[in-house]
Amino acid sequence: MLRVEGLNEDALVRIYDLTGRLVKTLELNSDQKELEIDVQNFAKGVYNIRITNSSINITKKLVVNR
Q1: What distance in Å separates the CA atoms of residue 42 and residue 15, rounded to the nearest whole number?
Q2: Residue 47 is inside which H or E element, if any?
Q3: 20 to 30 Å CA-CA from 17: which of 2, 8, 24, 43?
């Protein structure tokens, strides 16, 4: 579950593996406070989540371990 507060406009959520390969893209509406990310098809490892719109550029770390 990804929690984001204070969005004043819609944002794109992009998830990258550590090699920089884009593995998933999602949209986050400005009225959403949480986004559920299905990682069932992700390999075990560390991923970077980048949340962007015209006013923000946030990067978070996601760790998938089984």
Answers
A1: 10
A2: strand 45-52
A3: 8
CATH number at residue 59: 2.60.40.3080
pTM: 0.88
Q: Is residue 45 helix, strand or coil?
A: strand
Q: What domain count does the chain have?
A: 1
User: Which residue matches tokens 């760790």?
Assistant: 63
pLDDT, tens only, 11-43 = 999 999 999 999 999 999 988 888 899 999 999
CA distance 40 to 55: 31
N- to C-terminal Cα distance for the chain? 16
